[in-house]
Amino acid sequence: MKINPKATLNEMFNQINTAELDQVRKRGIKFLCGKLPNFFSSASSDASFSMFNREIEDLLIKNVKRTLSDCDAEEFIMFVRLLASLSSMNTLQGRQELVAIIMEQSELGKKFNSDDLERIMILVSCIQQAIPLFSKNVNSNKYVLMFIDNVLGIFDQIADEGIRFEILKSFADLCSFFTWSSTGTDSLSDKQIDAVYNLLLNYLPKPPVEAQVSQETEDKNDDTEVRFNFSYVECLMYTFHALAKCKQDFLGSPDNKDKLKDFRLRLQYFAKGTKNYIKELRNTLINSSLNAKTDADNEQNKIRRVALKVTTNIDALIKDLFHNPPAYKTSITLSWKSSQSLEAQGVQQPNKQNKRSLSVSNDSADSDCSARKKPERGIYQPPTGKYSTQNSSNDKRRTFSYDNQKTRSRLM
Length: 412
Hints:
Elements: H1 5-18, H2 22-42, H3 54-68, H4 73-84, H5 92-106, H6 117-130, H7 141-150, H8 161-175, H9 190-201, H10 215-220, E1 228-229, H11 230-244, H12 249-252, H13 257-291, H14 295-321, H15 335-348, H16 367-377, E2 398-402, E3 407-411
Antiparallel strand pairs: 1-2, 2-3
Helix pairs in contact: 1-2, 1-3, 2-4, 3-4, 5-6, 6-8, 8-11, 9-11, 11-14, 13-14, 14-15
């Protein structure tokens, strides 16, 4: 490799692309992705690695692009990490190029079909790999607009609840890096933001008319009660909040008074259910945390803490949208991002308190009792195994709903 890196790279990629056995192909990819980052990182400090320069990086990028069109999920992730380790990819232009390489594999520019679940999951995987590369200087505008045009339209046709939830989470992650643009292809149209708004309304029910509520109706069937899907609403409300911030006349315009009135009625009704759920979660957490004796009890408390983060996020966004005109100043950390952050902190700083902690303490307890109980509870670790978001599309995801009678979590 060090004697003639150019010829070696070309030959290795030729073997990878033509190998008949998957085992041979994977060995070649693992070798490249394991060794090359060290070779390139040593080029600046070790003269014996000086041949690994920009020309070789460009050759590597060219070969990786050609190979990405026919690789599985594991190979795709290895190649992305390899490219991310290159010095040319650590510049602003390099990050933009790497994002383009990743998102090109998702085929986001083409219309999606609700039956093609494999392609949808490839899109989700591509977005997950691209998210760490976005920043205030590398925005996601282009991909957000393509997502609205080519994916949101088939959302209601997808039967798998787990995949639907992954789609919404990926869309919310993309919208975190959406920036204002008044002109050009990256500008948000009224039709596009209206599509997001209408999808949000599907999960913000209208308040029931008092005259239509009777004891007879209530006794007929408990299934007629409105259920709030907080997990979906967190994603969609965050997404709408991020996009409407760049198009504030969508709700603030005098021409949209009726739309704003209807929206606030729905928000008010949903806010009431959210506050009730938050109250029940906090009360349950205080009692169950003190009495938790088994692993099952602790697992239930972890689920409740995630639900509490979801609902407090929604409550904060609703307060922002209730301003006249709606304000877009609130900044929240999405529930799944909070879980990932706490998991990372739990390894290095298990005793450090974080102001965004999902844990709920008993405010009425004295300080000695609080100090004694906190080390036992520790820092929240998110569910793993079959509830992990890293699993395949067949795994079920956990979302949270509420029926105004009792707190419950629903497995999707």
